[in-house]
Design a protein that fits this description.
Elements: H1 5-23, H2 32-42, H3 49-60, H4 65-86, E1 96-97, E2 100-101, H5 103-106, H6 109-128, H7 136-150, H8 155-164, H9 172-197, H10 206-229, H11 232-235, H12 241-245, H13 250-254, H14 256-272, H15 282-293
Antiparallel strand pairs: 1-2
Helix pairs in contact: 1-3, 1-4, 2-6, 3-4, 3-9, 4-6, 4-9, 7-9, 8-9, 9-10, 10-14, 14-15
């Protein structure tokens, strides 16, 4: 991990945990179990890649750090909710996430469903709150961006395609589309939201969208490689489930060596999209390289 990335990850991890802790107090009534489940899933878990993408992009355009961190809580809440639901028995039926029991195992299935629902709603509550920014147009654009990346034309649509992949044979183009929606859309939204906070007009974000698209695809290729040949203890979850379910992945379609080469090519391409920037974009460059170098 680079000298610039390590401290940046630690900083955003601490800020996101502190934000969730502040905004999700446990009530002294029967809702307590639900909030405890939400906090269990949201605090002290995950790499916080999406919040770092958002805050690093916002920083590139001198946006307020506190505002960016608050927006990053929203995108991380969507990500965490998706993991809670993804782990449910009706979906992937996983018992381990980030090295600890999944929410439905630590609590119960009904509480896990509600915890995911609550995090989804929390995300848009955060973005619509004037505490984020007094500019209603910025808040509306952030909401539209995250909603689009989360729904039918984003993460939820990709998850449906992932379910269909258990009974259908997908070619490389379809697998790429699946992952562009399931994983890439939320990563791209993180960059887009950072640009929105930095007041970059839509027509000025083309290179950032290119960066985010390539990083998102590289991220999923590396996920497939880690699922194929990674260490379960390091990953903190059960691996090789896609192969067991008969799903086509980048590794099954390309082979491990070609998939790895493709991921490196995409990262190089992503970094090239930042060519107009100097040292101020080094964190985004380091994050792109981390995508292919990570072990979990």
């Amino acid at each position: 991990m680079s000298d610039i990335l390590g401290p940046a990850l630690k900083r955003i991890q601490a800020e996101v945990d502190a934000g969730f802790d502040l905004l999700l107090p446990v009530p002294q009534d029967p809702r307590a179990k639900l909030v405890e489940a939400v906090r269990y899933a949201a605090i002290s878990g995950g790499k916080r890649i999406r919040p770092l993408l958002l805050t690093a992009t916002a920083e590139l355009f001198a946006a307020d750090r506190g505002m960016a961190v608050r927006a990053s809580l929203a995108i991380e809440a969507i990500h965490v909710y998706s993991l809670i639901h993804d782990d449910l028995p009706c979906m992937d039926d996983d018992a381990l996430r980030h090295g600890k029991p999944t929410v439905h195992c630590a609590f119960d299935e009904a509480t896990a469903v509600l915890a995911g629902d609550a995090l989804h709603d929390f995300a848009f509550e955060v973005l619509s709150d004037p505490a984020l920014t007094g500019d209603p147009f910025t808040r509306a654009e952030l909401i539209l961006c995250l909603a689009g990346a989360s729904g039918i034309n984003g993460m939820a649509g990709g998850q449906m395609m992932d379910i269909a992949a258990e009974t259908q044979t997908f070619d490389l183009e379809t697998v790429s589309r699946l992952q562009q929606l399931k994983t890439g859309a939320l990563l791209a939204a993180a960059v887009e939201m950072g640009a929105i906070l930095g007041r970059v007009p839509p027509e000025g974000r083309t290179h950032l969208r290119g960066y985010a698209r390539d990083v998102g695809l590289a991220f999923q290729i590396v996920d497939d490689l880690l699922d194929h040949e990674g260490d379960e203890e390091a990953a903190g979850k059960v691996l090789r489930k896609d192969a067991g379910a008969g799903k086509q992945t980048f590794v099954s379609l390309l082979g491990a060596d070609r998939a790895r080469a493709q991921a490196h090519m995409l990262v190089d391409q992503a970094i090239a999209h930042l060519g107009q920037y100097g040292a101020e974009a080094d964190l985004l460059r380091a994050l792109a390289r981390f995508i292919v170098e990570r072990d979990r």
